[in-house]
Amino acid sequence: MVPEGQIPRRDHRQDTLDAAPMLRTWSTKARAARIVLRPVLASHLPLRTKLCVYKAIVRTRLTYAAPAWFALTSETGRKSLRTQQSLTLRTLFGAPRYVRNQVISRDLRMESLDDFVIGFI
Question: What is the pTM of this model?
Answer without folding.
Answer: 0.78
